[in-house]
Amino acid sequence: MALKRRLRSAQLLETVPTSLSKNPAGHVLQGDRSSARVLTKSKTDVDSIDIEEFGNPQAKRARLKPHTAISANHASSSVPLDRPAGPFTTNAPLTTPRGSRVMAYAPGVAENSPSITGVPRPTTSTSQILDQACAHLIQADARMQSWIEKYPCQMFSAEGLAEEIDPFQSLCSSIMAQQVSGAAAKSIKNKFIGLLKEAALETPPTGQSFFPSPAQISSCEVSFLRKAGLSTRKAEYIKALAEKFANGDLTATMLVEASDEEILEKLTAVRGLGLWSVQMFACFALKRTDIFSTGDLGVQRGMAAFIGKDVKKLKTNKGGKWKYMSEKDMLDFSAKFAPYR
User: Is 315 helix (H, G, I), strand (E, B) or coil?
Assistant: First the structure.
């Protein structure tokens, strides 16, 4: 997380200014879109909480459940700035097509509460995890301090971690953005939303902007989806992704409960989602802290420069995917920075 951001943003001894202000899925890395507000929860609110997938409205179980889904009429409430968090789980609040919100830990769960569903218990809070990560990186290598000070990581601040993420929309956007410019991807997405909004039979929950649901997209023909400017292959990819969400094979709950390895395995099995795309989604959307993309050339180049290699000479060498460093060397060097890579 923090290490990768330093390597990629700073290019460590290189300069990469504004090109990294957004990740491939369109999420602003500097946190410009974060707009967290304070959540006040009354007893009535707690009684309205249900558990996604299981439909259990019992407030006591909702308080104990490591992940909860707030019902549709409460999903527009603000995400609390300070809530339990941890380096081995999804720290972003996720939204579902039904308008509910899923979080790894219900607000108010004690940091030492035992896990019930296998989600690692929280070890810190959203207001502290970034400071702890930075301290860990500096302890592992003192040279990190200057880069941390130069490139503050707003995305993993309390405000950044309060940004709600629709995982289905984020993955669709990632597919749309593949091999096209940012402007083209934005145009395609807007056309896609407009096309499906016109054909929609239902309106989004109050306070939410429209994005077609998995059920709506999966019911469309590929030829219809192509009217938004998608290639046949991308239309097929998005339809297949929608089917996975519509039939429950992929859910917000799964994306909260699963380990990093399970998420990478599950999502790369979906046509159109390669390892790099899924790693970017896990880091920048789900806010998982130990996603380390060894195949990312920017990360390779930054790490090579950091350990003192002449990256200009390495650029001319034929190394295929591993142009600047081998995967083994990258993993060996980065191990000391875990779980905040």
Answer: coil
Nearest alpha-carbon partner for 123 in 112, 134, 131: 112
N-to-C CA span, the chain? 4
- Residue 46: its pLDDT value, please? 26
Please give the residue that has the higher pLDDT: either 252 or 110.
Answer: 252
Question: Do the Cβ atoms of 232 and 144 come closer than 8 Å?
Answer: no
Tokens of 6: 């330093």
Mention every residue, 6+ apart, whose C-beta is less than 8 A from residue 329. none
CA 105 – CA 149 distance, rounded (Å): 30
SS3 200: coil
**Which residues on adjacent β-strands are paired with residue 124?**
85
Of 192, 185, 168, 191, nearest to 273 (Cα)?
A: 168
State the burial class of residue 328 (Cβ atoms within 10 Å of its Cβ: 0-12, 13-18, 19+).
exposed
Q: What's the predicted TM-score (pTM) here?
A: 0.76
Residues composing the chain: 341
Which tens digit of pLDDT belongs to each residue from 116-142?
556 788 899 999 999 999 999 999 999
Determine the angle formed by the axes of helices 232-246 and 167-176, rounding to 10 degrees: 170
